């Protein structure tokens, strides 16, 4: 099969079944596709089967589902969304004394009082990667993607794609308008970024909702330039498509990281939540996560054992350019970003 049918078939299957039942004593609300082999070896060895998964497509869907009463034991949000789980009183701290590999998690991924404060550790980072410019190397000169201005270029009108994701699209807009952090954004800076997104909107052929959709658009040639995660690019390249990934444009690129929160009063076995985290953070999970999903493990010691050429092939090697990190932001700012982006997509 082509990459288009392979990825779309996988996505359709994931969303057709809302939950995959296995070990009934642990329910994980997770991103579609995260039930891959290799990262739950420790859990299966101890408990006999993988946990029960219920999948979501994006962070907003996950929070809406969980806050509406869906019963899960642990949830997998990205860093920028952890605050609203805390504010809603949905989670409780982890006991990191039960997580031996916690000491090997990069300190940069815990540098927020949203994640770690006097009450405890509220978030266990597990995975990270980058968002940057994917482009068709046969149709788009490398010089054109040396800047984020490529998204404004009338030459590519109707041939670009942006994520249908608040975090990713605003990280692009802030970078394009001169910001390297989305903390303490002024009204003027917010408006400048919104104006940039409005100017780019007529060039957008589609706002992609998952890597499968982005990959399909680029595989068919409908889209020549996209603001993309690294995993879809690596897979397109593996399938022989002429796709490059520019992670060092003049204005910079974005990085994101995700992890797990511990549900307050979860219905399952609390100790199995720790079995899950310990299995995922185990050094043996690093190559499995990289091969299966294209993401890096938050366990820095484990990642240090992976050859540099392998990291580079998956585009998770260190980047020597400006990086906007998708860190926690206040709820009122998130609401403003969501509302403004919806208005822009609707043509207002």
UniProtKB/TrEMBL annotation:
Superkingdom, taxonomy of origin: Bacteria
Q: Name one GO cellular component term.
A: periplasmic space
Q: Which GO terms describe its molecular function?
A: polyamine binding
Name the GO terms of the biological process aspect: polyamine transport
Q: Which InterPro entries has this protein been placed in? A: SBP, Sperm_putr-bd
Q: Which UniProt keywords apply?
A: Periplasm, Signal, Transport
Q: Which residues form a coiled coil?
A: none
- Where found, per UniProt? Periplasm
Q: Signal sequence: where?
A: 1-21
Name where it mostly resides: periplasm
UniProt xrefs under Pfam families: SBP_bac_8
What protein name applies here? Polyamine ABC transporter substrate-binding protein
């Amino acid at each position: 099969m082509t990459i288009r049918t392979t990825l779309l078939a996988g996505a359709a299957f994931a969303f057709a079944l809302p939950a995959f039942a296995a070990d009934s004593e642990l329910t994980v609300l997770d991103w579609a596709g995260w039930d891959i082999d290799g990262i739950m070896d420790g859990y299966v060895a101890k408990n006999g089967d993988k946990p029960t998964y219920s999948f979501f497509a994006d962070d907003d869907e996950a929070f809406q589902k969980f806050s509406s009463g869906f019963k899960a034991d642990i949830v997998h949000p990205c860093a920028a969304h952890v605050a609203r789980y805390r504010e809603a009183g949905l989670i409780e701290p982890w006991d990191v004394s039960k997580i031996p590999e916690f000491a090997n998690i990069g300190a940069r991924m815990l540098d927020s009082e949203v994640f770690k404060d006097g009450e405890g550790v509220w978030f266990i980072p597990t995975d990270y990667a980058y968002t940057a410019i994917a482009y068709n190397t046969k149709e788009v000169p490398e010089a054109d993607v040396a800047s984020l201005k490529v998204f404004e270029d009338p030459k590519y009108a109707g041939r670009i794609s942006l994520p249908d994701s608040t975090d990713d699209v605003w990280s692009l807009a802030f970078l394009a308008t001169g910001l390297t952090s989305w903390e303490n954004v002024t009204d003027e800076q917010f408006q400048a970024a919104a104006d940039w997104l409005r100017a780019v909107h007529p060039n957008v052929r589609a706002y992609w909702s998952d890597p499968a959709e982005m990959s399909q658009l680029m595989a068919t040639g409908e889209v020549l330039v996209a603001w993309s995660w690294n995993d879809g690019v690596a897979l397109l390249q593996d399938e022989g498509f002429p796709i490059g990934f520019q992670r060092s444009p003049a204005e910079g690129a974005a990085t994101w990281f995700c992890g797990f929160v511990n549900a307050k009063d979860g219905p399952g076995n609390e100790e199995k939540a720790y079995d899950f985290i310990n299995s995922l953070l185990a050094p043996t999970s690093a190559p499995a996560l990289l091969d299966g999903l294209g993401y890096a493990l938050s366990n820095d010691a484990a990642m240090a054992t992976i050859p540099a050429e392998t990291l580079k092939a998956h585009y998770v090697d260190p980047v020597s350019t400006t990086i906007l990190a998708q860190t926690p932001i206040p709820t009122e700012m998130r609401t403003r970003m969501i509302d403004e982006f919806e208005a822009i997509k609707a043509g207002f």
